[in-house]
Amino acid sequence: MASARDPEYVERVLATAERVPPGRVTTYGAIAEAVGGGPRQVGSVMALHGGGVPWWRVIRADGSLPPSHGEQARRHYYDERTPTLPSGRVDMRSAYWDPAD
Predict the structure, then answer these.
(1) Of 8, 65, 92, 98, whose CB neighbour count within 10 A is largest?
(2) What is the pTM of this model?
(3) Cα–Cα distance between 28 and 50 in angstroms, integer?
C-alpha cells in the first residue's frame, strides 16, 4: 500500500511533482494514477515532504488549493503566468498537465 512513510513512494510522488512545467498544474488524483496510491496519499506526501518541489503546481481537481496555501500559490501563478479564472481558481482547461503523458 502506498504511504507517505515509504521512501520509494515519496520519491515517485515528488519526482512527478517536479516534472510539472511552469505555468501548468496537475492534481493529486492524476499523480496518484501515475504512481499508485490515492489522492490522499499524494496529499500526505506533499504536506510532509513537498516543500522542496513546486507544490503549488499540485492542486485539487476543481482548480483550488487549501486556503492555507492560496496567497503564496497565487504569487507563483502570477509569476509563471498560470491561467486562472476570475474566481481565483486555476483554469484547469488551460493549465492542466497530465503526468501520464
Answers:
(1) 65
(2) 0.92
(3) 12
